[in-house]
Design goal:
Helix content is about 30%, strand content about 25%. It is α/β, with parallel strands linked by helices. It has three domains: about 250 residues, 3-Layer(aba) Sandwich (Beta-lactamase), CATH 3.40.710; about 100 residues, D-Ala-D-Ala carboxypeptidase C, peptidase S13 (D-tyrosyl-trna(Tyr) Deacylase, Chain: A); about 80 residues, no CATH class. A hairpin with an 8-residue loop joins strand 11 and strand 12. Helix 3 packs antiparallel against helix 6. It starts with 6 loop residues before the first helix and ends in a 7-residue tail after the last helix.
Length: about 475
């Protein structure tokens, strides 16, 4: 589905016209109903049209922590730096030669910074080796991770590590978002539950077990542990009720380069290509010959991973890629510097903006709702960029992080917005469209200790009231 509105119209709507605040009393009343203090909010809602009409303005210039709404800022920079058909490339190279069916030399897996590289890509690379008739490799399997710096966890994340997918490490050679999906399926009462890991690999070893019990109980504990050789242990304990059904969860891995190389080895072994050496790090010689390459997702695909799934790993990979694109070191620090330089062209109010983390994991990422709407306007200034961005956003009741959130209004055609949540900060920013064609841009940011469900319910009902009560003409 394409969500069209001319960039000139949206630009005009956010820079000129009236400031009516027609729904201000309703918004304040609703905040009171949900026991949310206005002082904890920065909200700006604007009707898009040939004249600007501000519907709600609650502390719109107040700078608050925006959590994963930060990915809208990152999206703006990605669209500025990469063509819509751009694809990052992962290559397999060699410094040797193929004699009969033997590759005499080293095999290099060379990362090109692709955030989307996974099992399909690895299968395609190994299939290309088979097409060349390679059945044996005499040299080492070497992972070249040098396209980015070697910082796996940027300091903007803080110094506390977690083994959940949101804290996955980053590397130029990464695989499957540097994480695994674990499915635990209960068996018969008293028996061990079945444990499956995707993607299948030899890097993550499972220890312990899960016992099946009657009922719907779930006290499964999964802990990731690291061995000295880099391999990861997933230690499982606890029990799962028969009636609970399959339990699915995700965990990250520790070393992107070794993890990626291990998965290459797994695929080589699966396809019957023999080799003797273990995986190690290194750099491919400049003269190395390319044997195979895989082109990852295009810009829309990457932005969809970024925004629909709110993927932190993708955000940080893209920030490093932005740095390399601008001939800087492939670091988040350099990427963020470029992102901040680019947002300056949008008339961002400096006192209402602070951006240090492309993913939004840092509480230092702060913005005012007024500035957030300027970012949205900046994206809309390019029609093609706007349409791709809109397709990348979660849609309420349909997909992504908004799949389970339905807006209770028969006048809503769709709501597409980026969510944000870290401890103490809950945000939502994007667009809502009425059945009559009226389009509303909004930015809701909350900082405080109220319950997440309380705040998200307030947001969703606020959107519903805006669409129900706003007596506007359709956009032409």
């Amino acid at each position: 589905m394409i969500y069209r509105i001319t960039s000139a119209l949206l630009f005009c709507s956010l820079t000129t016209g009236l400031f009516a605040q027609t729904l201000q009393p309703e918004a304040l009343s609703l905040a009171k109903k949900f026991r949310i203090s206005p002082e904890k909010l920065s909200i700006l809602t604007v009707k898009v049209g040939d004249k600007r009409e501000t519907l709600i303005d609650i502390n719109s210039n107040k700078k608050l922590t925006l959590a994963s709404l930060s990915k809208v800022v990152t999206s703006y920079s990605v669209l500025q730096n990469f063509p819509l058909d751009h694809r990052f490339i992962t290559r397999i190279k060699t410094d040797g030669r193929i004699v009969n069916s033997t590759l005499e030399g080293n095999l290099y897996l060379v990362g090109g910074g692709d955030p989307s590289f996974g099992m399909d890509g690895m299968n395609e690379l190994v299939a290309s080796l088979k097409k060349r008739g390679i059945k044996k490799i005499t040299g080492a399997i070497i992972v070249d991770d040098s396209y980015f710096d070697n910082v796996r966890y940027d300091e903007s994340r803080g110094d506390k590590r977690a083994d959940f997918i949101y804290d996955a490490p980053v590397g130029a050679m990464s695989y499957n978002w540097n994480s695994i999906k674990v499915t635990v399926t209960p068996g018969k009462n008293g028996e061990k539950a079945k444990v499956e890991i995707y993607p299948p690999n030899d890097y993550v070893k499972v220890s312990g077990s899960i016992k099946t019990k009657n009922g719907r109980s779930n006290d499964v504990i999964a802990e990731r542990r690291r061995k000295k050789n880099g391999e990861n242990i997933l230690h499982l304990k606890g029990s799962l009720g028969q009636s609970y059904g399959p339990l699915v969860f995700e965990r990250n891995i520790t070393d992107p380069d070794l993890w990626s190389g291990s998965n290459l080895v797994y695929m080589l072994r699966k396809e019957g290509i023999a080799f003797n050496e273990k995986v190690k790090n290194g750099m491919a010689p400049y003269s190395a010959m390319t044997l195979a390459e895989f082109r990852g997702k295009d810009t829309l695909g990457l932005l969809s991973d970024l925004n629909k799934d709110s993927n932190n790993h993708v955000a940080e990979m893209l920030a490093k890629a932005i740095a390399v694109k601008n001939k800087k070191q492939g670091s988040i620090f350099e990427g963020v510097k470029i992102i901040n330089q680019e947002t300056q062209s949008l008339a961002i109010t400096p006192q209402g903006y602070s951006f240090v983390s492309p993913s939004g994991l840092s509480p230092q990422n702060q913005i005012s709702s007024a500035n957030m709407l300027k970012i949205l306007r900046g994206i809309a200034m390019n029609k093609k960029h706007y349409e791709v961005f809109m397709q990348s956003l979660p849609e309420a009741g349909v997909d992504g992080t908004l799949k389970k959130r339905k807006i209770a209004s028969t006048k809503v055609e769709w709501v597409k917005a980026k969510t944000g949540f870290i401890t103490g900060a809950i945000a939502l920013g994007g667009y809502a469209k009425k059945n009559d064609g009226t389009l509303v841009a909004f930015s809701f940011i909350y900082n405080g200790s109220d319950k997440e469900q309380q705040v998200t319910d307030f947001y969703d009902q606020l959107i519903a009231e805006i669409m129900d009560k706003e007596n506007s003409v359709a956009v032409h």
